[in-house]
Amino acid sequence: MRSSIPAILAGLAAAAIWGGMYVVSKVVLEVIPPFALLSLRLLLGFTTLAVVVLLKGGFRMERRKLLLALAVGFVGYGVSLGFQFFGTKLSTAANGALVTSATPVFVLPFALLLLKEKMGFRRVISLAIACVGVLIVIAPWDARPSTVTGSIRLGNVFLLAAASTWALYSVLVRKTAPKTDVLESSAIMLLGGIPTSVGFGLVEIGTQGLGPLGPGILAGVLFLGIVSTAVAMFCWNYAFSRLPASTAALTFYAQPVVGTLLGWALLGERMTPLFFGGGALIALGIFLSRE
User: Fold this and answer.
1) Helix, strand or coil for residue 148?
2) Eight-class DSSP state of 31
3) What values do phi and psi take at 271, rounded to 5?
4) How far apart are CA 73 and CA 138, in angstroms?
5) Smallest Cα–Cα separation from 25: which of 54, 233, 156, 17?
6) What tens digit of pLDDT does each residue of 182-215 get?
7) Is 75 helix (H, G, I), strand (E, B) or coil?
8) Are 92 and 157 in contact (CB under 8 A)?
9) Cα–Cα dist 87/81, whole Å
10) Cβ contact 267:27 at 8 Å
C-alpha cells in the first residue's frame, strides 16, 4: 500500500496544478489565442523535459516505442485538448467543468478493454463516492439557466469527446509507460500534439493577431509551459504508469477542489459547507481505491 502513495501524490499534484492553471490561463488567453498558447505550452514542456533527459544521459528510446509515444501524445494533446478548446468556446464554462470532470468514469471501459483491468466492488464504490463529491463541489444546480442553443449542444458534444479521449490517452499511458522510461516518454508524447496545435495556432495568429506581450504575460506563459505542462504531465503519466488506471483516474478530482480554493483565495469567491463536504468525499474515494 505504501508503494502506491508516491504515485497517488503525483496524480494529485498534477490535478492540483491544473486546478490552479485556469487563473493564469484566463489572463494569458486575453493576449494569446488558445491554440497558439497550447503550441507554446507543448514546446516549452518538451524542451524542459528534454533538458532533464539529456542531463541524465540522453534519449535511449528505440524507434518503435518512440513512434508509439508520439501516437499516444497525439491522442492526448492533439485530439483531446483540441476538443476541449472547441467545446469550451461553443458551450459554457459550467458545462466544461462538469463534463470534463466525468473523465474518470470514461477511464473504466477503456481500462477494461485495453488493460483487462478488473473492477472490484471497492473501486466501484470509491468511484461513486468521488463522483458525488465532485458534483457537490461543482454544484451544477447553482449555475444560472441559459438558453440551450445548437452551438451549446455542439460544444457539449466536443466536451464529451474531450473527456473520453483524455481517458483513452491516460489508459494508453498506463499500457505503454511501464515499458519505457516515464520521463522520456512524457517528453516525446508532448511532441505528438504539436502538429495539430501549431496548425490551428498559425490560423489564429493570422486572423486574430497577438496582444501586448508584457513581463506578466511572459511569466504566465513560462508557468503554463514549464509547471502546468512539463511538471504536471510528467506527474500524471507517472501516476498512470504505477497505479491501476481506475485508481489513478480518481486523482483528477483534485482539480475542481483546487480551482475552487484558488477562486476563494484570489478572486474572493464564496466557499460553502458543501465544498468541504464534497472535498472530503473525494478524499475518501481516493483513499478507498488504494490497493
Assistant:
1) coil
2) T
3) -110, 130
4) 29
5) 17
6) 999 999 999 999 998 999 899 989 998 888 889 9
7) helix
8) no
9) 10
10) no
Q: Taking the mean position of all CA atoms in its chain, how far away is CA 46?
A: 16
**Through-space distance between the first and last CA atoms of the chain, rounded to whole angstroms:** 6
The identity of residue 279, as a single letter, is G
Residues 6+ apart with CB under 8 A from 29: 37
Most confidently predicted of 118-122, 127-131, 162-166: 162-166
- On whether the CB atoms of residues 251 and 26 are closer than 8 A, the answer is no
Q: What is the pLDDT of residue 43?
A: 95
Say what the pLDDT of residue 42 is: 94
Chain Cα centroid distance, residue 92 = 18
What are the cell numbers at 257? Answer: 477542489
Q: How many CA atoms lie within 13 A of 238 on its CB side?
A: 21
d(CA 120, CA 109): 13
One-letter amino acid identity for 250? L
Q: What is the pLDDT of residue 137?
A: 60
All residues at 6 or more sequence positions from 219 whose CB lies less than 8 Å from its CB, including other chains: none
Distance CA 276, CA 180 (A): 39
